[in-house]
Amino acid sequence: xxxxxxxxxxxxxxxxxxxxxxxxxxxxxxxxxxxxxxxxxxxxxxxxxxxxxxxxxxxxxxxxxxxxxxxxxxxxxxxxxxxxxxxxxxxxxxxxxxxxxxxxxxxxxxxxxxxxxxxxxxxxxxxxxxxxxxxxxxxxxxxxxxxxxxxxxxxxxxxxxxxxxxxxxxxxxxxxxxxxxxxxxxxxxxxxxxxxxxxxxxxxxxxxxxxxxxxxxxxxxxxxxxxxxxxxxxxxxxxxxxxxxxxxxxxxxxxxxxxxxxxxxxxxxxxxxxxxxxxxxxxxxxxxxxxxxxxxxxxxxxxxxxxxxxxxxxxxxxxxxxxxxxxxxxxxxxxxxxxxxxxxxxxxxxxxxxxxxxxxxxxxxxxxxxxxxxxxxxxxxxxxxxxxxxxxxxxxxxxxxxxxxxxxxxxxxxxxxxxxxx
Length: 422
Ligand code: ADP
What we know:
- By secondary structure, the chain is of the alpha+beta class.
- It has four domains: 2-89; 102-190, PAS domain (Beta-Lactamase), CATH 3.30.450.20; 193-266, Signal transduction histidine kinase, dimerisation/phosphotransfer (DHp) domain (Helix Hairpins, Orthogonal Bundle), CATH 1.10.287; 273-422, 2-Layer Sandwich (Heat Shock Protein 90).
- Strands 2-1-5-4-3 form a five-stranded antiparallel β-sheet, sandwiched between helices.
- The protein has helices spanning 2-24, 27-54, 65-101, 120-126, 138-141, 145-153, 192-228, 235-266, 278-292, 312-329, 375-380, 387-397; strands at residues 105-110, 114-118, 160-164, 170-179, 183-190, 274-276, 299-302, 308-310, 337-343, 346-352, 401-407, 411-419.
- Adenosine-5'-diphosphate (ADP) binds next to helix 10 and helix 12.
């Protein structure tokens, strides 16, 4: 329709020109002059529009017809785009403000590890400067090998804990998330207080256990001497002394486990360099179990000859805890089996028993210190309640994990899973 009305205008102007020309002597010349004038007018309007487009902050050009329509469209589109940009900017400002107010350090990285933005807390915690460090590789500015290796590996499934600083070390926890295309968001938290409290707790437990050992050794020594010849003792004394000796032995085991757990926790983050042959470890354990259970020796199924990097003593203690539990909580006379295999990328060391099994309710809490499914039964079997806590820490110290599967009435399978290293 618009096109028709423009055509109508053109025809009307040409007719008016022709009419005026006819009156003056030549209709054709009149029409021609009218056409040229129209062309000039249109060019002038185009020039106005072009001038406005160069700087659209100027007021709208005074144009007509088609040109007015074109200017109207452009103006509306620009206003729409401006509104969207403003909304986007206010969302970005809001996000940056909230990140800025966080007590955790936030760093945005682009192209792998180059800094795009960071908040105040990140500047303090990681010693970054903003905006001076924009575009710099964060791995050049944060001098912590663990941090650099973590960022370069780009494998962010687990958070990283690492240290920075010289004399006064600061313990940090880093959570990294990928977003957009290849950009990374880092959240860094100062966990020094937590780490120090944890270390104090560990030291305290370690020191108390150590200090209690000496008096306990004296007590058990005297009890042992008194019980070597009971002929001259009245019977009630004998019973009391035997009970004291039994409880003293329990306490000794408890202190031994506590000290061992403290040692494993302390060295958990250290690199384990031994090449451990799990097959031989299982044979050694089998010998030990044969002495304790000559009628029901530990059964083995060894499908893998690979060695794994680790600490032999720690691994031995973990597997022996699982095997001892399998005998303790298994059904008398039923076989206990230990298997060693490789499945895909993982190594798996399983201990299988045919005992009463564990209610799924308890499984998530089994590795907590002193957690017991049945207190009276565990105490009767002489357990310390620390066995599975030790197993869990040994697994963690070897970058592995403990999996527990159990069916009530059928038995349980405890599996240590270690990642295969290339
Ligand atoms: P404890 O010294 O009491 O055995 P652990 O940490 O070794 O302590 O085990 C924690 C609890 O888990 C045990 O008290 C027991 O109830 C349960 N448990 C461990 N192993 C088994 C198993 N093979 N079958 C059934 N229950 C088990």
